[in-house]
Amino acid sequence: MEENYICQEKKIHKIEIMExxxxxxxxxxxxxxxxxxxxxxxxxxxxxxYSLLNEELCVCDLCELLHLSQSNVSHQLQILRSxxxxxxxxxxxxxxxxxxxxxxxxxxxxxxxxxxxxMV
Length: 120
Prior knowledge:
By secondary structure, the chain is mainly alpha-helical. The protein has one domain (25-119): Winged helix-like DNA-binding domain superfamily/Winged helix DNA-binding domain (Arc Repressor Mutant, subunit A, Orthogonal Bundle). The protein contains 6 helices and 3 strands. The chain has helices at 14-23, 27-40, 43-51, 59-66, 70-82, 102-119, and strands at residues 57-58, 86-91, 94-99. Strands 1-3-2 form a 3-stranded antiparallel beta sheet. The two termini are 23 Å apart.
């Protein structure tokens, strides 16, 4: 069965390879992209991102919502901030978080749509 997904004829398509090379991302961009996807690969960070999808929440709210300690939430938020996935604002002693911009929302929503499509 697995053989159906492997080229039966060993033929190199040089023009297609050249075109693919022209469109390839740089090594630096590849590294940055891999690092960003590592950030999305953590379940706790995904829960935080998803929680912030449509709602601004303070750290205390996130702790309660996700049943996590403040140190754990703060650590994960620091990672998300370093990748510019979330932003914050202070109001007195409260710190409120939202998603950095619509790109983060789009990444998550497209991934969810892709998974739902696969489940059908």
